[in-house]
Specification:
By secondary structure, the chain is mainly alpha-helical. About 80% of the residues lie in helices and about 0% in strands.
Length: about 325
């Protein structure tokens, strides 16, 4: 196990390094100039050139990258080119909205997908099962942006149950108001991602229902549902956990979009604003943080697989 963890940690570090290089180079080939943005349209070429030199943007790209990644390795993501504020501090502040939003969305997705996916599989030859499957396909095809607008219309404007936009000034100092502000955004992301996961749970459960060991358990006296719950679902649990890891990336992308719709002061909204302002230091720090989060989730899922699946341990022992 220690050797496996060390190998995966090495791959995680290499993945983060590759992601940082791709993010940095991609941002450098985009059109636009942050120095021109700061100076404005009235600025002279000499003023723009002087500001580029002051910000270090006239240095070779490789030197800029090495300076940035050296700071990242010590926990310093640099400073905003526009405001001079530390990027890491702003990320930590915005994460207080984005992280709870992501966790709530994940809970909603699991609550929808697992029980209703199993029910849809158990009732595959009934009208209720077909209706659940059709509803999941419909919800999975709904754009997150449109789903958010519809929930605002129904629950905020028509019923008046929840706020349509914004986050309380006191933040989590007023936990009730903060939680109410995140319910509709979390429902928006969770329902769409939950519908995608539901279809996978249904497919995995159908595979388990037709498996020989479930039929054998049923032949020994278990009901079909009992055999499935006791022997079938644990067998497909690993594949569901893997799919859940993939859904994390979808939730992160959904948060970037939905924070715009609900006017939430999170990382996604800050990222969109910084891209428009060409604040390269902040954008590359934000993208690296989001990418790192997704890679770390994948790393943890691999460890969970390794811990609960004896077949992986046996295969590794044979290979070693």
């Amino acid at each position: 196990m220690p050797r496996y963890v060390l190998t995966r940690l090495t791959l995680l570090a290499l993945g983060l390094l590759a992601a940082s290089a791709i993010i940095f180079c991609t941002l450098r080939i985009l059109p636009g100039d942050v120095a021109q943005t700061i100076v404005g349209t009235e600025g002279t070429p000499e003023q723009v050139a002087a500001l580029r030199a002051e910000l270090g943007l006239d240095r070779p790209v490789l030197l800029q990258y090495l300076a940035w990644i050296g700071g990242v390795l010590t926990g310093d993501l640099g400073e905003s080119l526009l405001t001079g504020a530390p990027v890491a501090a702003e990320l930590a502040e915005k994460a207080r909205v984005t992280v709870p939003l992501g966790l709530l969305s994940l809970v909603v997705a699991i609550v929808i997908a697992v029980p209703f996916g199993v029910i849809a599989a158990l009732r595959r030859n009934r009208v209720s099962g077909a209706a659940l499957n059709a509803l999941a396909q419909l919800l999975a095809a709904v754009p997150v942006l449109w789903a958010g607008m519809m929930l605002i219309v129904v629950f905020a404007i028509v019923l008046g149950w929840l706020p349509a936009q914004g986050f309380p000034r006191a933040g989590w100092g007023d936990p009730g108001a903060a939680l109410r502000a995140l319910i509709l955004p979390a429902l928006t992301i969770g329902v769409v991602e939950g519908a995608l996961l539901l279809r996978f749970v249904r497919s995995a459960t159908l595979t388990a229902i037709d498996a020989d060991f479930v039929r054998t358990a049923a032949a020994k006296g278990h009901t079909r549902t009992g055999a499935l719950l006791r022997h079938g679902l644990p067998a497909v649990g690993l594949s569901i956990i893997t799919m859940l890891g993939v859904q994390i990336a979808g939730i992160v992308v959904g948060a970037v979009v939905i924070e715009q719709v609900f006017n939430l002061p999170g990382i996604g909204r800050m990222l969109v604003a910084d891209v428009g302002a060409r604040d390269l230091t902040k954008v590359q720090g934000e993208l690296l943080a989001l990418t790192g989060f997704v890679l770390i989730v994948g790393f943890l899922i691999d460890l969970v697989h390794r811990a609960i699946d004896p077949r992986q341990r046996d295969t590794a022992e044979v290979q070693s």
